[in-house]
Amino acid sequence: MVTITASHTVLPNQPTPQCRLWLSDMDQVVRQSHTPLLYIYKAKHDHDCIERMKESLSKILVHYYPIAGRLSFTENGRMEIDCKAKGVVLLEAETAKTMADFGDFSPSGSTKQLIPTIDYNHPVEEVPLLVVQLTRFNGDEGLAVGVAWHHTLSDGIGFTRFIYSWAKIARGDKLEPHELPFLDRTLLKFSQPPSAPRFEHKELKPLPLNLGSSDCSVERNKKVTSELLILTPLQVEKLKKEANGNVLEGSRPYSRYEVIGAHIWRCASKARELDQNQPTVVRFNVENRSRMVPPLPPSYFGNALTQTAATGYVGEITSKPLSHVAQKIREAVEVVNDEYIRSQIDVIRCQKHLDDARALFLGVELEGAAPSGVNPNFHFTSWMSMSLYEADFGKGKPLYFGLGYVSPNDRAIILLSPDGDGSLIVLMFFQTVHIQLFKDFFYADISTCDGITRPSRL
Questions:
Q1: Residues 320, 432 share a domain
Q2: For 71-75, 219-223, 267-271, 309-313, which range has the lowest pLDDT when averaged over its residues?
Q3: 375 compared with 429, residue with greater pLDDT
Q4: Domain contains 100
Q5: DSSP letters along 283-299, please?
Q6: For the chain, percent of residues with pLDDT exceeding 90
């Protein structure tokens, strides 16, 4: 049981621009809700620490002033941020549970209590875009920082840069010029009429259902379980060696990203025990700040992700070498260049209603189509390139970072371990009836003598 003990509305501590921030087409099609994220700190946090976090939050909001705004709608139904400095919400909470009571902090009903609850019954113009909950564990042995971050604000890269900057100010440091956010999203505003798509855009096509099924309601209603799966450095190298064992001399070896993504897709396809002729699609996002011409500023604050997809048949994915599956992941990444990104944006612009565009990207069912995370399809996300563990508010770096809820769909998130030893964490959401079989395939042939399958540091 978590009890909220105090609620604060935190405003920028200096005057900020009073304006309406134009949101790009990429901002318009992301999920229109808050992403629940969780940091866990082992060090003892006292009252002064909480006050320092609150004060530093008011300072960082001066630079990131759109976060203190509210969403609003234009006449044509597009969203924008009304930057009127209405503030963000900081909650203080406590729990009678110890850190040990939460186990490895993998998403569950218990960890969900460490994340702020957002009431969407209020008009969108009244809902804060950021709510933070600071929860003390029993005995003041640590602190949970639960974050509800509205996806319209930015992608994961923008989020982690904000958190890092907030923590840096909390430590008493100043931000360097290159650490300030680039807030102008009109770099992605195009004056010319949208063109017809120049690519096939497999990632936006209706997703396949199970063979012999006319709808996906049965699959959607099956329970999903979360698991934290650890890949040691040795296990990662074994997978890379397997995938690169027959790569031609002079060819670029498959990356860790390509190999792990392929391994997860193959294991999921095996665990589901589907027909060998079953089509399957895996969707994932590619960060595009450096892929556009000209490139977006590295500090661009917004959603700069392009969705892409790899396709195949279950029999192919499960029986072919890992290199074959990794090549599919690679090809789906390599197709994303400036022209592809602009073509995908034109797909959005060509839609009569934004809800139709969102359905294409989010896999929301239209006329019985299947969401991306429903059997036989999959979605994975890599957070390996983000500085997730640099959020030191003055009491040390977090020992855990992850989602704070159980995804209703099959998906995976790949993260680096906070130990910094080259090991990886796969935060896996999978149908409960298949999860044990998935784990069996996941660790088959790469098991190590230590037998670690869960984080032992917590």
A1: yes
A2: 219-223
A3: 429
A4: yes
A5: EEEEE-TTTSSSPPPTT
A6: 81
CATH number of domain containing 344: 3.30.559.10
156-204 pLDDT tens trace: 999 999 999 999 999 999 999 999 999 999 999 998 899 998 999 999 9
- Domain match, 67 and 117 both: yes
The strands making up 143-150's β-sheet, listed across from edge to edge, are 2-10, 88-95, 130-136, 143-150, 34-41, 400-403
Same domain, yes or no, for 93 and 242? no
Q: How many CB atoms lie within 10 A of CB 332?
A: 22
8 located within any domain: yes
Structural domain includes residue 401: no
**Residue 225's pLDDT is what?**
94
Based on C-alpha coordinates, what's the Rg of the chain? 22
Domain limits at 132?
A: 2-185
- Residue 449 in any domain: the answer is no
When pLDDT is cut at 50, 70 and 90, the band that residue 218 belongs to is low
pLDDT digits (tens, 9 = 90+) for 108-139: 999 999 999 999 999 999 999 999 999 999 98
Tokens matching residue 68: 């203190």
CA 207 to chain centre: 21
Terminal Cα-to-Cα distance of the chain (whole angstroms): 20
Based on the fold, state whether residues 179 and 260 are members of the same structural domain. no
Q: Does residue 122 share a domain with residue 247?
A: no
Number of domains in the chain: 2
Specify whether 440 is catalytic.
no
Largest CA-CA distance found in the chain, in angstroms, rounded: 62
- Pick from 73, 77, 87: nearest CA to 16: 87
Report the range of poorest mean pLDDT among 34-38, 106-110, 232-236. 106-110
Residue of 82, 184, 392, 419 marked active site:
392
Mark whether 392 is an active-site residue: yes
Task: Find the catalytic residue in 8, 82, 151, 356.
Answer: 151
Angle between helices 322-334 and 233-243 (to 10 degrees): 90
Domain end point (choices 185, 217, 250): 185
**Which of 281, 274, 283 is closest to 315 using CA atoms?**
274
